[in-house]
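Readers of this paper often ask what the protein records in our data store actually look like. Below, we set out a record of this kind in full and without editing:
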Amino acid sequence: MRDREWINTQARQFLSLLNSLPFTDCHELTRNFSDVTPRPGLYAFRHSPSGILYIGKSQNVRKRLRGGHKALGWAFIDRLDPNDVRIAVVTLDWETAQYTLDIEARMIQTLRPRYNVQIRQGE
């Protein structure tokens, strides 16, 4: 079991990666997300003017996005231009992937993206 400091460090590093990835290098919204990895990862829906809208995790990021996503629905309802919304992805190694729930929770608690409705309580 990893300690809290390791989780916090990983969360800071992944947030930094998701934020610093150039918007043009993020994945465009498509019907099948064929260019998105099928590996475990953390992902963020990013809006070019306002930053990260949603942070998520998945054991298969492509499959998660292909299955539909509430963040896409909210972006539609908010009338965001689809050209201004992209998906940043960080793939994870097997060891780190075991802790995605805790890492994701820390990232959400830190950033509080507007489309992450439920924020896990606690440290």
Notes: The longest strand covers residues 51-58. The beta strands are 27-28, 41-47, 51-58, 85-91.
